[in-house]
Amino acid sequence: MGERVEAVGGPAAGVAATTAGHTAGHTAAHTAGHAIEPAGANAIEPAVEQAVGDEPARAPEHAPRHASAPLNLQADALHVRLGLRDVLRGVSLSIGAGWTALVGPNGAGKSTLLRTLAGLLRPAGGQVRLQGRPLHHLPAAERARHLAWLAQQGEVTGELTVRETVELGRIARLGLLGTPGPEDQHAVDHAMALTECAPWQGRRLHELSGGERQRVLLARVLATEAPLLLLDEPTTHLDAPHQVALARLFRRLAHDAAAPRAVLTVLHDLPIALQADRLLVLEGGALQADGPPTDANVQAALIRTFGGAIRIAPGTDGRPRVALALD
After folding, report:
1. Where do the DSSP E strands lie in the chain?
2. pTM above the 0.85 mark?
3. In whole angstroms, what is the distance from residue 72 CA to residue 27 CA?
4. Which of 2, 19, 97, 137 gives a 20 to 30 Å CA spacing to 290?
């Protein structure tokens, strides 16, 4: 089918895959049996913020496989240089269970930071550690079982069907030569149910809209069942109802009582980002703020970073709301 699967660090790495010429991540996690359910078709940006807490319908139950130890991804004084430019400058942070949104202006280094945390870029200085161990020292298959990465650009080509694409997510568990069993098919079914792409699983990728393809790529991530998701602009191409749906899903993944996930999302959609548990504000390759969106210092840093182009005020539910400063 013109398909090539390539894993960072080895054939079973599962952190990145190339399908029909496109490189994208394909590892991730499952919810506690909740399906994505879009908001109403007339949803607009304020409704995106308000509707995130609404309860969606349940997907078929599926027990995820996760390590019992709490997950921790640690970055210590990361320095990344691309060409002649310092893209990351001394970034230190720790990612554990919960939903963290990484925001900042264009060129701030957000995608570079995510790729470095995924082990796709080796820093010139500093180190990334997973469960206390240097990330690049871990066997590729072990990294694949823990880390999930979704690329920023979700364009795909070729003749793969939706289901075939989602099935690629099981490579992290099976390896390139493994034979899928009933558990793998169940994981694929569950991932498609969560992203609402099961009804058109037989369609070819080139027949889908941009938003539909994005949901398929996310399903491929979910099919891998890793406890840490690193998602670069996962709401790209999605309309407001499905942005709401993804925000609900991220929240449930992060707060699953049985197996809480670490969800780190790069977002340009500030109304969605402010619904996260934690906000990281990046500018000029350096971390400007780190804390809950309700923190006044984090909000001030966010406004400053975007040059005063936004305003933040508390909503009726106490969570912050953002608007453009047009006057």
Report:
1. 17-19, 22-24, 73-82, 85-95, 98-103, 125-130, 133-134, 147-150, 228-232, 262-266, 278-283, 286-291, 310-314, 320-324
2. no
3. 17
4. 137
